Automatic annotation (TrEMBL):
<dbReference type="Pfam" id="PF04607">
    <property type="entry name" value="RelA_SpoT"/>
</dbReference>
<comment type="pathway">
    <text>Purine metabolism; ppGpp biosynthesis; ppGpp from GTP: step 1/2.</text>
</comment>
<dbReference type="InterPro" id="IPR007685">
    <property type="entry name" value="RelA_SpoT"/>
</dbReference>
<protein>
    <submittedName>
        <fullName>GTP pyrophosphokinase family protein</fullName>
    </submittedName>
</protein>
<feature type="domain" description="RelA/SpoT">
    <location>
        <begin position="43"/>
        <end position="164"/>
    </location>
</feature>
<dbReference type="InterPro" id="IPR043519">
    <property type="entry name" value="NT_sf"/>
</dbReference>
<dbReference type="InterPro" id="IPR052366">
    <property type="entry name" value="GTP_Pyrophosphokinase"/>
</dbReference>
Amino acid sequence: MKQWDQFLAPYKQAVDELKVKLKGMRRQFDHEEEHSPIEFVTGRVKPIASILDKANEKGIPLDKLETEMQDIAGLRMMCPFVDDIIRVVELLRQRNDFEIVEERDYILHSKESGYRSYHVVIVYPVQTITGEKKLLVEIQIRTLAMNFWATIEHSLNYKYKGQFPEDIKMRLQGAAEAAFRLDKEMSLIRGEIQEAQAFFNRKKENDKNS
Ligand code: 0O2
């Protein structure tokens, strides 16, 4: 257990630091009073049981976890609209505090399950008392609708261990299509939504100052 704690400590540090940095991006948009392409950011270190399950499933030896498991440290950035996703990816590409080593576009090429999301794998340097450690971290960027679907599907997956009964599988595929249509509809009225949000924010500011 102590060995796991030691192994996971730099991953925890990476998640904590990146949460501050990525949430900071959102705050900067708020200060500029510009539409933020980031709605919220979450992060987690993969639980030990999930690391073991995935290593077993993919045949990754435990002494190769550091180089072969890309999502021990994981961040999620949720965006209001589909077009915001590429904007966020571009912002990540411009940063010089980490290096992007892989991108996977499950929006253009959604998974068979119906899963949609944009994955960016980075190498992030963590400063430790024994020197710098470079870690793989996965950042998943998705809309609120994609996140809703993925969260529900993930919990059902946990229950059925990936072996969904046919009717549930069909329903999940239908729900994925509905989430896709929702994203499309929201994009069509994006201007209206943003105007309303700007109006609401100005009103909040005025009320605060009066
Ligand atoms: P958790 O609990 O989220 O940590 P692959 O062999 O392609 O499936 P790989 O190579 O690890 O897996 O890379 P991938 O697919 O880019 O990233 C895996 C992660 O993406 C998953 O982590 C999920 O977070 C998410 N994901 C991928 N496919 C699906 C899907 O069909 N449904 C949902 N809900 N999420 C998905 P883990 O390890 O599954 O678990």
